[in-house]
Design a protein that fits this description.
heterodimer; A: mainly alpha; 2 domains; 70% helix; elongated; B: alpha+beta; Immunoglobulin-like; 5-stranded mixed β-sheet; 5-stranded antiparallel β-sheet
């Protein structure tokens, strides 16, 4: 019987056997585990997907605990586990499966999914608060849709703001303050040729905020 | 500046940062796909150019590279889920009577336990055979049973709908017995046959 003819249950059993061999430091045959991924991703087979989640649950939890952001964000590991598998499911469709040559490539991508769901949350909390306050932030529960909408609205808002800015110095201060969350001292240090002092940056930033506060387009955009 | 203006500008600055923070950066997942080289040429070129200019994305890529390269160690609780569940021999209270396994060749049945699973093993009626009974809270019918000799290929059978299994044609010697479960493999590490 070829691998393609095996049932999902049999594939899952053989995949588990081979994983045990791998954990025992023995050579393993990846074909069974790879076939389950293929059926789940290309065939959109629910039973195969369930087998993958069961099989790799432990490894994904290990990926989560390995990431430096997990301890800072302080959500249950199960939360990131579910988000990571959701990210993998939505990112790897039938048309992309061919770009994964083997099981290690698939597992590396699964590890990327853990990283990206954690970093999405880090970025979202950083956007809401200053860096000092970030560890105490409430979770943003950011999803892919809101991330895309956020990016589009940011581009539109920046285009609106740029029309208010008078020169390169103002554009630099506005961009680095709002799009990069840099403090005036950091901006002055990075661009000492453009700004004579930290006080210079503070002055420019105050002027920008004063002008934007009076701009009806900016206020309407922000809903303030 | 009026006193209310300061609070107003602070709120405005917070809103601007919330809306604009890294608006021009690729999201973390796309950066990761760039690192894994699974993007198309146009996206790869665009992101490469951005990373050259953006300290935050450059730092994030460095973090990602280190993370992907780091070996993953499974903790013991996680390994337990994947690994073997070793059954231990159950020593019955001498005051209780155990009638042995139906179909067994005498009173030489042995009982093993692991978690909420009990396995009774006894020599079969014919030389070189072993019969067993699996009692568990989860369904085990159809699950594979393997007897692994110290050398040579395993002998396989499966549990029937009543929880029984029979293995025949075994050479005398020491075996390991494995029973497939839903989330692991139950193991009797040493089973003497013959």
């Amino acid at each position: 019987m070829t691998i393609g003819q095996l049932s999902v249950a049999e594939l899952a059993r053989r995949c588990r056997e081979e994983t045990l061999r791998f954990l025992g430091g023995l050579e393993r045959n990846d074909a069974f585990c790879f076939e389950i991924f293929r059926r789940a991703v290309v065939g959109r087979d629910d039973a195969a997907w369930e087998a993958i989640v069961n099989q790799y649950r432990g490894i994904v939890l290990a990926y989560v605990s390995q990431h430096s952001a997990a301890a800072v964000l302080r959500e249950p590991d199960e939360y990131w586990l579910n988000r990571a598998f959701q990210r993998f499911w939505s990112a790897v469709g039938p048309d992309r499966f061919a770009s994964f040559p083997d099981l290690p490539a698939l597992l590396k991508y699964l590890k990327l999914c853990v990283h990206s769901v954690l970093l999405d949350e880090v970025r979202a909390r950083r956007a809401s608060l200053s860096l000092d306050e970030m560890p105490e932030a409430m979770p943003s529960r950011l999803n892919a849709e809101s991330a895309v909408l956020g990016r589009l609205s940011g581009e539109q808002l920046w285009a609106t703001i740029k029309r208010e800015l008078q020169d390169e110095a103002e554009r630099k201060v506005a961009f680095l303050s709002f799009a990069r969350d840099l403090k005036p001292a950091e901006i002055a240090a990075r661009h000492s040729a453009l700004f004579s002092s930290v006080a210079d940056v503070y002055r420019i930033k105050r002027n920008i905020l004063e002008r934007l506060r009076r701009n009806p387009d900016v206020r309407a955009f922000l809903g303030t | 500046m009026r006193s209310g203006d300061g609070a107003d500008e602070s709120e405005l600055e917070t809103e601007l940062r919330r809306s604009l923070y890294r608006f021009d950066c690729p999201d973390a997942h796309t950066l990761g796909e760039y690192e894994l080289d699974v993007l198309d040429t146009a996206d790869r070129t665009r992101i490469a150019a951005h990373v050259l200019e953006c300290d935050e994305c450059h730092a994030e890529l460095t973090t990602l590279r280190d993370y992907l390269a780091a070996p993953t160690t499974l903790s013991e609780p996680v390994l337990e889920r994947v690994r073997r569940i070793v059954a231990s021999l159950f020593v019955p209270n001498p005051a209780l009577a155990y009638g042995g396994l139906r179909g067994g060749s005498g009173t030489s049945s042995r009982i093993y336990q692991a978690a909420d699973i009990t396995i009774s093993i006894a020599p079969g009626q014919t030389p070189g055979s072993v019969i067993g009974l699996v009692v568990a809270n989860e369904p085990v019918d159809g699950h594979e049973v393997r007897l692994l000799p110290r050398q040579g290929a395993p002998v396989r059978t499966s549990v029937d709908e009543l929880g029984n299994f029979v293995v025949e044609g075994l050479a005398s010697g020491l075996y390991a017995l494995e029973i497939e479960l839903a989330d692991g493999v139950l193991v009797i590490e040493e089973l003497q046959v013959g």
